[in-house]
């Protein structure tokens, strides 16, 4: 009788463990589904000599030069607007040296919510991620193969169809 009670407890424990595992798998799948892939990484760059901050968009796979640095984002993820803001990008940053060599100075993930953690710090230039976007006013490169990108901001679904997102506050617009 004692052995039967022990076996029943073990079976219940195994069922609970498997149930917990399946919940974890479902939650991981939900987190994966909530991640949105964007075609444009929006950066800010600081020129420490002039003190000028420049904002620029870079399409995935495209290389853009900021001063002596060449920035190439490989992926750019964000969350839906209904969740806590979190934009991340995996980038490669190369420095163009005086003797025309190119030297890789950074490869890794960058987080918009915490730019100090993985920002590119250079003696003359700093670069940090501001946001991942599905639109850009910059022309689409000829060899671009990433996610679809719009040429203007998308309608803000939270504010309704009468508002166009400006990135900060909904601005009333007439429907097209």
Short recap of the structure:
The protein is an alpha+beta fold and 176 residues long. The chain is built from 1 helix and 11 strands. The protein has 2 domains: 34 residues; 111 residues, no CATH class.
Notes on the structure:
The protein is α+β, with helices and mostly antiparallel strands and 176 residues long. The chain has two domains: 1-34; 36-146, no CATH class. The protein is built from one helix and eleven strands. Strands 1, 4, 5, 6 and 7 form a five-stranded antiparallel beta sheet that branches. Strands 3-2-9-8 form a four-stranded antiparallel beta sheet, with no helix packed on it. The longest helix has 33 residues, at 2-34. The radius of gyration is 23 Å and the shape is globular. Mean pLDDT is 75; it is low at 21-31 and 161-170.
């Amino acid at each position: 009788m004692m052995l039967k009670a022990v076996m029943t407890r073990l079976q219940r424990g195994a069922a609970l463990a498997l149930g917990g595992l399946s919940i974890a798998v479902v939650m991981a799948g939900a987190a994966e589904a909530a991640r949105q892939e964007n075609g444009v990484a929006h950066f800010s760059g600081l020129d420490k000599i002039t003190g000028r901050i420049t904002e620029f968009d870079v399409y995935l796979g495209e290389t853009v030069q900021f001063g002596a640095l060449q920035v190439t984002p490989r992926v750019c993820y964000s969350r839906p607007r209904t969740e806590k803001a979190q934009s991340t990008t995996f980038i490669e940053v190369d420095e163009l040296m005086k003797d025309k060599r190119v030297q890789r100075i950074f490869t890794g993930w960058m987080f918009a919510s915490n730019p100090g953690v993985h920002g590119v710090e250079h003696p003359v230039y700093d670069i940090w991620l501001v946001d991942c976007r599905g639109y850009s006013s910059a022309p689409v490169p000829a060899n671009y193969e990433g996610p679809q990108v719009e040429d203007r901001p998308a309608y803000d679904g939270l504010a309704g169809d009468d508002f166009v997102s400006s990135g900060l506050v909904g601005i009333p617009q007439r429907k097209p």
